[in-house]
Amino acid sequence: AQSVTQPDIHITVSEGASLELRCNYSYGATPYLFWYVQSPGQGLQLLLKYFSGDTLVQGIKGFEAEFKRSQSSFNLRKPSVHWSDAAEYFCAVEGSGGGADGLTFGKGTHLIIQP
Amino acid sequence: NAGVTQTPKFQVLKTGQSMTLQCAQDMNHEYMSWYRQDPGMGLRLIHYSVGAGITDQGEVPNGYNVSRSTTEDFPLRLLSAAPSQTSVYFCASSRRTIGYEQYFGPGTRLTVT
After folding, report:
1. B8 preceded by cis ω (within 30°)?
2. Contacts of A44 in chain B (CB under 8 A)
């Protein structure tokens, strides 16, 4: 069965510093991959998605992610974080039914921004 | 377009009570799903539907029922609420032509006492 691991429960980064959030997945083929962000008390917003093609994908708010098949990873990066980036970040992979049966999410990484 | 709407936003139930969480989408998406979010657990799939009249169980279906009589609506029913069902519930919709990207509703925060 597919699964997603986000190894870091919490990450603290200084404002202006670079950020990398890790995501590893388990899936039989090349999956559809997603990163979502959830600000405190809010719903989920899609940051970016990977379907195929270029392994470096650009998203909203200055985020990018790189798909590495050999490492089964889809890490999220941002060159310089802003205080408004403090949120919960979720990596997700398509379900075993090819996506029609929803997504499988990681447990999330809580990002704290230090001034 | 309103996107995905959910009602109510907040609900408090007593153990044993039943209720229905409403979800509707106006994007003509064929796929709809219900997730619950608990601290430290991410989002877990409860039930999903691939079209009107077709539903199936996800990872944590016990205690919940769903039906899908129209493309637009996908209500989630709690048959006999338990404190373990205290959670935030998200409804989502998607379609194959957008790569199954999930469009989420704003969520319902449910407390069972």
Report:
1. yes
2. 43, 90, 102, 104
Residue type, B48: Y
A62 backbone dihedrals φ, ψ, rounded to 5°: 80, 10
The secondary structure of residue A84, as a DSSP letter, is G
SS3 B15: coil
Interface test with B, best of A45, A47, A90, A103 (most B CBs within 10 A): A103
Distance between CA A81 and CA B80 in Å, rounded?
45
pLDDT digits (tens, 9 = 90+) for A11-30: 999 999 999 999 999 987 77
What pLDDT, on a 0 to 100 scale, did the predictor assign at position B100? Answer: 80
Place of tokens 């899609």: A46
Q: Which residues of A touch B106 (CB under 8 A)?
A: 42-43
Amino acid at position B108, single letter: T
Q: Which residues contact A53 (CB under 8 A, 6 or more apart)?
A: none
- Could you list the beta-strand ranges (E) of A1-115: 3-5, 10-14, 19-21, 24-26, 33-38, 45-50, 56-58, 64-68, 73-78, 87-94, 103-105, 109-114
